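Researcher: Quick test of sequence recovery. Tokens follow.
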């Protein structure tokens, strides 16, 4: 029998989709090898990386038995299934499981793709002001819906420190990186008190601190 290797994560310190996976790996205490792909240098479009992920996007994960997975939330699902300790979804509550996936999809399907730098560059060209305006408008629109949803969950249904209750779930792994993006686009977060309070509760946890962009080796001014 050959010894299993640690998983390999291809990512970029500032990529919010990569941060979701870093969080899942940290939450489960999984050691991994990190292979940075510099988006500013367009390394995701290299021939070598296209062999790993034909979509030419990060993140990608090589599993310990050498299989390749792409799409951040599919990778998080894999980690959850392969490493069941410290679960990221409640076991016996179909409603809460669906609610968590609703928040995940709200961000990962509806907000995040519209502010992908490649798309924004196609729309706004080199005009940096126009790029920021586009991203701000769409993040704000998405956060208005998310704020209302999270506030309702807290008031009527499931109070707690995090997105859904007092246990960290995969919804929290998409929320924090998206708030990071919002801050990069100078979104005024005081308009979103529920999101901000959940974000600050999560950012006090060691897994969230350790996986933050500025702590990564490929961050130019890593702390
Ligand atoms: N749905 C994908 C989105 C991946 C994605 O958009 N990754 C961005 C970084 S956050 C990327 O690689 N962008 C480079 C490009 O589009 O050229 C996922 O969740 O993994």
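Model:
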């Amino acid at each position: 029998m050959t010894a299993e290797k640690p998983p390999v994560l291809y990512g970029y310190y500032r990529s919010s989709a990569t941060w979701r996976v870093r969080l899942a790996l940290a939450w489960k205490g999984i050691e991994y090898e990190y292979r940075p792909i510099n988006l500013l240098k367009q390394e995701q479009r290299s021939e070598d990386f296209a062999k790993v992920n034909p979509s030419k996007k990060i993140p990608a994960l090589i599993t310990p038995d050498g299989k390749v997975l792409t799409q951040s939330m599919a990778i998080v699902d894999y980690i959850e299934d392969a490493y069941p300790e410290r679960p990221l979804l409640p076991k016996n509550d179909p409603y809460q499981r669906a609610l968590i996936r609703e928040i995940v999809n709200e961000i990962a399907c509806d907000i995040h793709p519209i502010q992908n730098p490649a798309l924004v560059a196609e729309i706004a060209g080199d005009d940096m002001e126009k790029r920021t305006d586009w991203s701000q408008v769409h993040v704000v629109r998405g956060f208005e819906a998310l704020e209302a949803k999270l506030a309702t969950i807290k008031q009527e249904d499931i109070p707690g420190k995090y997105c859904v209750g007092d246990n960290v779930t995969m919804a929290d792994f998409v929320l924090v990186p998206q708030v990071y993006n919002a801050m990069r686009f100078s979104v005024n977060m005081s308009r979103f008190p529920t999101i901000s309070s959940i974000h600050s509760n999560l950012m006090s946890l060691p897994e969230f601190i350790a996986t933050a962009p500025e702590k990564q080796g490929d961050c130019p001014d890593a702390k």
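The CA atoms of residues 49 and 193 lie 40 Å apart.
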